[in-house]
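Same chain as my last thread, 364 residues:
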Amino acid sequence: MEYVLIMAGGIGSRFWPQSRIQKPKQFLPFLGESSLLKATIDRISSYIPHERIIVSTNADYVPLVLSQIPEIPEENVIGEPVARNTGPCIAFAAALIHHRAPDSTMIVLPSDHYIQNNEAFLSDLQTAVLAAREDHRLVTIGITPTRPETGYGYIQYLDNKALAVNSHTAYPVKTFAEKPDLQTALKFLQSGDFLWNSGMFIWKTEEILNAIKDYLPVLYHQVEIFEMDVKAANGKIPKATLDKVYQACFSISIDYGVMEKAKNVYVIPSRFGWSDLGSWMAIYEMKSHHSDSQGNILEADNTIVIQSENCLIQSQSNKVIALVGLQGIGLIETDDALLICNLKESQNVKEIYSQLSGDNDKYR
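reply #2:
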């Protein structure tokens, strides 16, 4: 039996000023009418029913999840009291799922990715599930790189001992690499045996819990406490226990804490179009087919563009917005804030959050 964990925490600071602490990126409709979270759940629900979809999010966002996705049972929404990265997020969700279905396979998905081909996406997930059901494998999905990207982690794989699974191939992982500098990213691209790390994982719950026990024993101790109280609560989430065990955890990613250390990790190269939507530049790229003859994307009622190219304008005000002689600029306006940035530098928008303190804290 398959379960899905949707990771929907985070504040989406790279998407300020649209993404705010009270309603961050994953709850906003960047690429259509549905929020990124709803699009993710709609994508997977044709394969996994709503009653087997778990959402882990900040405790303050639980009402947002339930309002946007009323089909998800309330007992399937984990409200994290503090942010502790993907390690604890996955560990406690795995314990909850394992109690409900001890022989289950767990699919882990971020809530804020763009997938171009849903049919290919589901096919790759089904392949990964088959690979993960045998020989204690921990499986991840890799993305074939198209450029020397410095904003992604990488996975290097081995050609030998590759597995033929469901007319596809799973490769043993040689190493995980952190976000590289440009020269290193170029070498990765040229080598031909590196994939982008998508942050999607597939494994049996028993296997990931055993790996956490081996490599993160302190975290596993808190998981044992949580799992014991889940059992006492007949499979429901004991909020008081969840708050206690989360506070006792340190922040660590599942990549660093487990995947980089585990011995039986496999990667499946994806066959679907993908973006992690990590910046305003990524939004521009996803919407580029809607651009004008000069490559501008104009999502505002009143715009005048003179000798400007490859710009993104988003505004719901009635102001006249005029650009003259600009290239690669993002202009994002909300009721109370205005961002103007070089789209190539839009990863650094997250640094605005650290500047918004004191009297300006209300703009976060």
